[in-house]
# Entry
Amino acid sequence: MRTHVLGFPSIGKGREMKQALESFWKGNLSADAFTETCTELKKRHWRIQKDSCLDYVTTGDFSLYDRMLDITCMLGAIPSRFASCSYDSPLDRYFGLARGDAKRNVSALEMTKWFDTNYHYLVPEIGGDPWVAGRHPIVEDTKLAKKIGFSPKPAIIGPFTWLALAKAQGGILKWSRMNNVVSAYEKLLADLAPHCVCIQIEEPVLCTELLPDVAANQFRAVYAILNAACGREKLMLTTYFGPLGRNLELAVGSGCAIVHIDMVRGKKQLDDVLSVLPRKTALSLGIVDGRNIWKTDYSQAMSHIEQAVSAIGNERVLLGSSCSLLHCPVDLEEETALPEHIRNRMAFAVQKCAEITALRGIVEHGDHAALEENTALLKIAAAHPDSRIDAIRERTASVSSADLSRRSAYPERRAAQAWLNLPPLPATTIGSFPQTAAIRKTRMEYNRGRMSEADYVDAIRREIKDCIEKQEKLGLDVLVHGEAERNDMVEYFGQQLGGFCFTQNGWVQSYGSRCVKPPVIFGDVYRKHTMTADWILYAQSLTQKPVKGMLTGPVTILCWSFVRDDLERSEVCKQIALAIRDEVHDLEKAGIRIIQIDEAALREGMPLTRAEAEIYLQWAVDAFRLASSGVEDSTQLHTHMCYSEFNSILPWIARMDADVLSIESSRSGMELLDAFAGFQYQAAVGPGIYDIHSPRVPTAEEMEGLLYKALRYIPKERLWVNPDCGLKTRQWDEAYPALENMVSAALQIRKRLEL
Ligand code: GLN
Ligand code: ZN
# Structure
């Protein structure tokens, strides 16, 4: 039985990749030194896989920014706006596509969530221009791995997934570009084939409903070409993030030597897969969860493995991770402070590699000790008293439908909120302001016990004061306290909630050099004390303008945490919602009458198939309503979401029943708002008009243009003016002028429209 993982995290256990990238961008690290660091990391990760006795090490999982972008560059599908840019090197151009180009005023490729994960990829754009094929770094990496003694398994995103996720522009029919795409893949596969025995070609799109018939009809023919390009039977058609469902026939009929299926999210598909799998095709079982931090339940895994082995025999079964380990932290060995009962339940990327080998040991060598040890450990963990708190279970059980509704409908609330006296097209921000080195240092000193509580409070208050003064000067209408005390919008709340714990080093890549360290929900969740009121009230004490209270919503807290696997997600979410509801209540009572509950993750947490998505949206929206609806009509409730493709879920967003919705949209040039054209959205909307993900400072005219576009969809009485997300990753010298321009765009439009 061969073993492998679908990919190992790139970031390095000390986030070396992040540091190298950022130093390189700042010009503090030469291209050679940067490349050297990357090579060291790749080698280290191959070594880990080999030392864990996996049969293959994966190449091509390591990307300098994003694997979708790597394919885009190989195909040469470079949007025409970049034609005006002359770059010093291919590396410069690569990062130019990813991050935009402030000097030349060229915006980056759009970025969006990779399926239902919290990883973001760069969206390919397909315009009318011819493509000039480029190179893919995977070939060199694969040669290197082989040369230094590893058995490489190159991993690439497949043509159907790339095209399905690409955005066609100007009426181009993107599937008609398949010929171009295929010829580039043919060449790549031919280049790779001499250096490996197996090539992982990933088509997660097969686990979704995103493949139209025009594409499905080409599938067999395309894969016949790709299989031929490798010379021998090498391709492993790799699917993940769900069961194959209606695409099962396509996958098993692809002619690939191996088919990989996700046995974590698609457990139930095994019977069906085994019954149609061609006799010559091998099956790779993605049995170890690539998306969580928990140990695999060996006895459950064994029942699936044994079923496959008895149906098709050892030689035709491979064991692997369900998806790339990109989505879990690197090494549990780095964690020295976790409570033992929690740590004992955990496995990170390094440990997951070992789990795969252990499972093979149990099947092939009858290693019963490993099986028994695993069973015993999981049993002890489940019996821990933090796992279940009766008072919390009783409270969630007694939530009634009245707890999910505001007192009145939007039109009445709107009238009740007139006392806020906001100008037309009110200008605001999404919450965070630049997290300067000084702010980060303050938090770090305090967390390490090197700064007293009193000094810490003083330092953060100074930041809040500065931030309020800047906003007053900018002329924003609804101010925020700036979130200087928050390292992260989820971690901050998790730290103050029972049932959460934190890793020291459990970082996961979010995009490019951005990493997040998700909190861990291991027990029942409850609020210990007021979490935000002190800071927000202090901010409000400094200004006559309204200060918006900032909270993170229950669905986002859930989606951006590693969640216990012994309780329904909907139940965990309800527990969090009640904690946030109590916080909303405290803020309102203290006089904060505009409150924003961010649900940045609502869309991304959505399962990939319609039927499951419906179930999720039902409980997720209910959780938001439970958190938000306890307020008076005269209190204005905002929500914010980013990077989302809203079209299909607009009715659900309407059901969230917020008074003001701010959304990402500047990167897609207000295209998002198309959805609002066909749907009567009754509340106010702030489509982001400033792309905060890029260092580029947009001009006032540009933002005015976007506002005019927005006015086609949203009446002026209900339009807000804001950036598309929080500003914490920006520097003041970018954010300040951008906000100046944003406010002046708002003023200009108010004047023109004589509002
Ligand atoms: N209020 C948060 C911030 O401004 C929202 C961040 C987000 O949506 N990702 O940082
Ligand atoms: Zn956002």
Observations:
- The CA atoms of residues 465 and 697 lie 25 Å apart.
- The chain is about 40% helix and 10% strand.
